[in-house]
Amino acid sequence: MAEQADYIINTGVDVDEDRTGDCIDCFACVRVCPTGIDIRNGTQLECVNCTACMDACDAIMISIGKPTGLIRYASENSIREGKKLKFSGRIKAYSAILLLLISFLVFLLVSRTDVDAVLMRTTGMTYTSLPDGRISNLYSLKLINKTHNDIPLTIKVENGMGEIQVINPANAFVKSEEYSTIQFFIIINRNELHNWKTEVELGLYDKKGKIKSVHATFIGPEVYD
Ligand code: SF4
């Protein structure tokens, strides 16, 4: 008791342990902080959440036999009321939404194709009647290669109807991570057309096999039975 009285007289500081908390002003958290802030002043914009201060503080607390977690992730309420974080209904709902979003993202990544393709009939053109009686339509195939490899492409008619004639076969590949446009004709015998619009299914193939299907609408002359 006498010692405590001396201490108060000598320092002039009234030490109230209930109010001062466990921090011993070792500055370990300030020294290890990569952004040079003093986290004891509260959360700050410069903090990059590296948690180095937490580890440094815990190491000091262990060495002096005090409870760890002096610097930790906690809400103001939980510190004031001394309550631990509860897995509340709101947290459960947010977690479920987050899980759904992550699952959706994973699904998009897994189901992602290497090549994106958009097929359009060349604007301003309908169909052309060839001298041998067949009908042709001109198409532009816009391609996006999402891989790091060049993809040589072959276009095939899947439903056995007609044939493909690429205008410049040397351009029938897509460079890695680039866009490309391939122009080609679909040529179909007039007697194979049963309407003025015919759906044609095309397959895009690289060296390993089919990489994508695209649908083309083929226009021909009106058919009278
Ligand atoms: S988490 Fe990292 S950046 Fe933030 S205060 Fe602690 S040591 Fe500094």
List the helices and strands and how they pair.
Blueprint: H1 2-11, H2 17-20, H3 28-32, H4 52-63, H5 76-81, H6 89-110, E1 115-121, E2 128-129, E3 135-145, E4 151-152, E5 154-157, E6 163-166, E7 173-174, E8 179-188, E9 197-205, E10 210-219
Bound molecules: iron/sulfur cluster.
Tell me about this structure.
The strands form three sheets. Strands 1, 2, 3, 6 and 8 form a five-stranded antiparallel beta sheet that branches. Strands 5-9-10 form a three-stranded antiparallel beta sheet, with no helix packed on it. The protein is α+β, with helices and mostly antiparallel strands and 225 residues long. The longest helix has 22 residues, at 89-110. It is 26% helix and 27% strand. Iron/sulfur cluster (SF4) is lined by residues 32-35, 37, 39, 47-53. Iron/sulfur cluster (SF4) binds at residues 32-35, 37, 39, 47-53.
Label this structure with key terms.
5-stranded antiparallel β-sheet; Immunoglobulin-like; binds iron/sulfur cluster; 26% helix
What top-tier CATH class of the largest domain fits best? Answer: Mainly Beta
In helices, the fraction of residues equals 25-40%
- In the predicted model, the low-confidence regions spanning at least 5 consecutive residues are 1-15
**CATH level-two architecture of the largest domain:** Sandwich
Shape: elongated
Number of strands: 10
Whole-angstrom Rg: 36 Å
What do we call the CATH homologous superfamily of the largest domain? Immunoglobulins
Largest sheet: 5 strands, antiparallel
Indicate the multimeric state. single chain
Q: Structural class of the secondary structure composition?
A: alpha+beta
Mean pLDDT: 85
User: What is the straight-line distance between the termini?
Assistant: 117 Å
Tell me the number of helical segments per DSSP (H or I, 4 or more residues long).
6
| Tally of structural domains | 3
Strand content: 25-35%
